[in-house]
Structures are given as structure tokens and as C-alpha cells.
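hiii, so i know i said id send this last week but things got crazy w the move. better late than never?? heres the sequnce for the chain we talked about at the cafe, plus the structure i predicted for it. fair warning i was half asleep when i ran it
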Amino acid sequence: MMKALAYLEGKWGWALLFAAGLAFPLMAGNDYHLTVMGTAYIFAIATIGLNLITGYTGQFNLAHSGFMAVGAYTVGILTVDHQVPFWIAFALSGVVTTVLGFFIGILSLRLKGHYFSIFTLCVGYIMFLVIEKWESLTHGTVGIIGIPAPSPIGGITFDTPLSLYYLAFFWLVVGLWAMRRIVNSLLGRTFMAIRNSDELAESLGINLMRNKVLAFMLSVFYAGIAGGLYAGYVRFIGPGVAGVEHTFDMTMYMLIGGLGTLLGPLLGALAMPWLTQYLQFLQEYRFLVFGPILVLLVIFVPHGIVGTYLGWRARRAAQAQQPPPQPPQPQPAAVAPMTPAAGGERA
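okay and structure toks below
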């Protein structure tokens, strides 16, 4: 496992993952496999956004699926009810969720720790209720049917599972590239300083509220974009998109892969949907199965697969930098002081 992760680190590893994504349709057995993987890519985009506010900034947002639903319903309402072109609606899905995230972030980020998480859990449930009950806007429990597929770009159309797969893959690559630029920049280090200690970050001159709100807005922007893409991908959305279970799924992806890493949430988001597919006979007992697994992971692998590997590599590097132990040097034999013999003459 450690050797495999070592190959995935660095530019060659990302290039290998990129090549695997391009070649996956050649290995897929049918269109259903393409759809499963394309959907996994979309939720991976949302998980990467959740990882920014949770893994890098240290604020556990439980309303993330609600923001994803806002992006999906933005596309659904604009395209179906108002005949807005898909790509304009898709762009607005990110804008609407970011603006909404600004106002909710100002209110919620005044709280810390589990108080913030409880507040966002309530916000997510309110989003679910608004979507379910506001029938004149969201179509209520019926949902929005007949969402058009993404509009053609030049000569490229998106009316087949293969083309939709590559569309989701393209946005995943763009999202990963942008997130890597963010977390490796001064802004990303600012977020990590806030995660490590609010007081220490503030003593260094970091504006806590401004940077927390910015991280929250960037996080929900990813959720909104993922939701808008999801609406065009499945062509139907209902209130279930806003269910908190999707947030728990994305949290599980991060915990399995590794919080605060780029590769970890990606691996978790791509591996777990396939595991779920092969364990569909346990669907009714899903939380009974995955609950103990999560508990064991938190106990024995608290930093996730990638986080554990990074810690192991750091320890090896620290050991390599230590000077080799020196062999013990022989000590000179102690010489007893000379004493005058008994009965000797005095000088």
C-alpha cells in the first residue's frame, strides 16, 4: 500500500491518474459503469470543496449537501422553467451558492467547534425543507424532470454516457488543479494556520473572520458547481439531493482517504461508490455496515490512508536526517596515584 501511494505522489502520480481517467472508458464493461464513475467524479468535486473548509481550515460543515442541492436546483429551475441555456445556468449555480455561502458563513462562522457543526446541520435541514415545501419554485416532492443535457460546445455534444463521462472528468481535473493552486499558495497556508490554532493565527495578524468566510465561500462554490453538473448529468433532481446523508458520505470519503490532503478525498470518493455497488445487497443495512468501519478507521487510521502514508514518509525522512550513531570510544585506563611505601624515609 505504501509503495502504491508513493507512486501516486508528485507529478508522475497525478499524470498516471489522469491517464487512468482518460483510459477508463476502454476498460468499462458498459455504459452503466461509465455513469457510476461519472457520478463519482461529480461527488469527488463536492468532496474536494468540503475538504477545503473541513480538512484545511478546521470547520466541519454539515450543510454541504444542501449547497450542492442549491446548485442543482439553480440549473434545474433556470433551464426547465425559464429556458435559460445550460452553460449560463451552470455558471450561475456557482455564483448563487457562493453568494448564499457568504451570508450563511458570516452567521455561522462566529461559532466554533461542534457549535458551528450543529448550526450548519440545522441550516442544511432548513435547505431540505425549503426545497421540499416550496412547490411553486422547486416543484416540491415531485422534483424537476426533463433537465436538458449540457449544450454542445462547438462540435462536441453531450448526449451520450461517454461524452458525459469525459465532461465530468474534465471538471474534476479543473477542480483539482485549482484546489492544488489554492492549498499550495499563501492563502492555503493561512487556512492551515487557522486550522492549527485560531489564537496563534490571530497573533500573526491573520484576519480570522475574513479568511474563514473566504474558505467557506470557496468550499460551497465547489458544491454548487458539482450540483449544477449533477443536474445536467442525471437530468432529474429531487429534495433527496439535499439530504444530510450525502454530507456524511462525503465525510466518509475524506476520513478514508485522509483529511487535509488532496489525494485522499479523491481516492475515497472514487473507491467507495464502487464498494457500495458491489455491496448493494447490504443497502438496507448500510449504516450498520459502514458505521463500525468508520469507527475502526478513526481508532486505528485516524489520518486516513494518504495521511498515514504522509506521516510515515515524514518519520522516515526525519530518521534519514539524523546522524548515524558513533561507536563508543575507548576510555583511557585510570592510573592509581602513587603513595609512599610504608616505613619509607622522609625527604
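btw The two ends are 83 Å apart (CA to CA). thought thatd interest u
miss u guys!!
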